[in-house]
Every structure is written in C-alpha cells, then in structure tokens.
Design brief:
Blueprint (H helix, E strand, L loop, with lengths): L1 H8 L3 E6 L1 H18 L6 E6 L3 H9 L6 E8 L12 E4 L9 E9 L3 H11 L5 E10 L5 H5 L2 E6 L4 E2 L15 E4 L6
Parallel strand pairs: 2-3, 2-5, 5-6, 6-7
Antiparallel strand pairs: 1-9, 3-4, 8-9
Helix pairs in contact: 2-3
The structure holds inosinic acid and magnesium ion.
Length: 187
C-alpha cells in the first residue's frame, strides 16, 4: 500500500484514524441507505470540491439508482489549517437544481460554517429536497449539526486529518486511508 511509503517518509502523518477498508464498508452502507431512501427517484449528488471529490465518486458507485453528478468548489480556509470565517464559491453548479432531489456531499463538517452557507445558497434555488451527506463530522459538533447532516460516515475528534480527499495545503488527498496529521511537525 502507498500508505507504507507515506508513513516512512512523512513524520507529520502520525497514525491512521480510519482505514481504507473501514471507509469502503461505510461508503457501501451509506450507498444502500440512499438507494432505499431515494427509490424511484433520480437524486442529484453535488460533490464539494476538492475535498469531497473522492468520497463523492465512491459514494455514487455505491448507489444503485440513476444518479446525476455535479460539483461545486468552495473555499473557507485558504492554505492554512484555520478557518478564515469566510466562504467563497470558486466554482458554481453546471445544472439548475430547481425541483431536484439534491444530496450535497462533503468531506468533513468542522465548524459547520461551510454547510450553513451552502444550505442557505442552495435552498434559495428551490430544490425539491435537500439533504447533506458528510464523510466526517466532528464529535463535539453534535446537536444542531446532527439534524442538518442526514448521512454521516464517521464522527471524528478535534484533530486535523488528511487523506481520502482531505488535504493540508493541497497535499495528501490521494492517501487511501484517513490519517491524523501532526500540525506541529508538518510544514
Ligand atoms: P467548516 O466550514 O468549519 O465546517 O469546515 C469545513 C471545511 O474545512 C471542510 O470541507 C474541509 O475542506 C476543511 N476541513 C476542516 N477540518 C479539516 C481537516 O481536519 N482536514 C482537512 N480539511 C478540513
Ligand atoms: Mg471541503
């Protein structure tokens, strides 16, 4: 596995938090759940670039329905590991979502800032239904966010993670597993 190379070569990668096998199993289950929930419909999966790209394409293949795919790019962090508190749309949707069964697919919901911004923006376009699916949600963000994110892959402690789409300064997205990233070591 490429993870061996990453582990040997990169002291900032401290440990695997979610293995590729665990991710695959969970993605399969989420796909089945969505297949059941949307039976007879054609959901539009909107992947949030770039972090959600890998999860979105795996999830799409785990859904046994006709689905459509679209992507949006937003930025809330720049290149640091701290939120700027501002969300910007870098790439908007190609398709109109009016009347559609939209499922927005995120890599991680941290503070919920991005989620709330996207929810407001997309609801203003009158989708038929709108649900959120996030591979990761912070453990401490329970309560209100639990109600907003219908499909959750894993709950995660307050550590920075990379891999399976998630990055630090655009790197590590291609790791098959999700790793804890030691911000005091990384450059
Ligand atoms: P929020 O707006 O605070 O919920 O942040 C959401 C976005 O921040 C996610 O879509 C990610 O792009 C990024 N993010 C938050 N935590 C992490 C992390 O641990 N690793 C990589 N990206 C993260
Ligand atoms: Mg993101």
């Amino acid at each position: 596995m490429t993870d061996q190379n990453a582990l040997n070569g990169d002291p900032a990668l401290s440990k695997i938090l979610v293995s590729h096998d665990e991710i695959s199993n969970r993605v399969h289950d989420l796909g089945q759940e969505i297949t059941n929930d949307y039976a007879g419909r054609v959901p539009l999966l909107i992947g949030v670039l770039k972090g959600g790209a890998i999860f979105t394409t795996d999830l799409a293949r785990a859904i046994d329905l006709r689905v459509e795919l679209d992507f949006m790019a937003v930025s809330s962090y720049g290149s640091s590991t701290r939120t700027s508190g501002v969300v910007r749309i870098l790439k908007d949707l190609d398709e109109d979502i009016e009347g559609r069964d939209v499922i927005l697919v995120e890599d991680i919901v941290d503070s919920g800032l991005t989620l709330r911004y996207l929810r407001k923006t997309l609801l203003a376009r009158n989708p038929g239904t709108l649900e959120f699916c996030s591979l990761l949600v912070r453990e401490e963000q329970q309560g209100e966010l639990d109600d907003l994110v219908k499909y959750v892959g894993f709950k995660l402690p307050a550590v920075w993670v990379v891999g399976y789409g998630l990055d630090v300064a655009q790197r590590y997205r291609n790791l098959p597993d999700i790793w804890e990233y030691d911000t005091s070591v990384g450059s």
